Methyltransferase
Amino acid sequence: MSDPMRPRASLRTAVVWEVLKDALDHKVKATGSDALDVLDTGGGTGNFAVPVARLGHRVTVVDPSPNALFALERRAAEAGVADRVRGVQGDIHGLFDVVDRGGHDVVLCHGVLEYVDDPAEGVRNAVDALRPSGVLSLLAAGLGGAVLARALAGHFTEARQALTDPAGRWGEGDPVPRRFTAEQLTGLVGAAGVEVAAVHGVRVFADLVPGALVDTEPGALDALLKLEAAAAELPAFHSVASQLHVLGQKREPGDG
């Protein structure tokens, strides 16, 4: 498995990475260019940006945290891709203060929508940063996964609160400001002019399995990774995933 997929961390990123890598490969073939222009909004320390740059692509990371961008710079240098990774301070709402509109082949919007005031505007800006037929990779917190996790922990009132709360929050102590269903995310993406290609449930089982079992049982990590990959595309599991990943393509001008 590729670089960003270290044990344990791989459970959080493997499904998205494999889908993204395939999308990048397809985009390379479609454009005839080995090096794509990739924008990673909220890309932080480069969990995806650095591996994408290792594939030969040019990556711009927009993040509001100077500390994260400093760590990104160091990480890119250590990986030997400093010449292909650029970090700029900013956020999705002020995106075009720091990057060009319509200048990217691929835009990653991972872990951003949960924290913005206006998710619809955030998605529109991400899409507006794409060239025609550009690829959008959107990852956000899933409502069902949080409800299930609270219930299995014995916090039944909090589980019910998350289920009925408009933002999907289980209480004042909830660190995530907003969660989504698959239907909400595909609706936002479709309204912004993107044709949805695939929806994946991410961390369907990983957050529910005891860490000690995965770390100590021979072969457990690999088996769990395969289970996650097998369940990711099945709609039945989207409603209980900790995160939801939507992959889509920007419609050409004049398309429906």
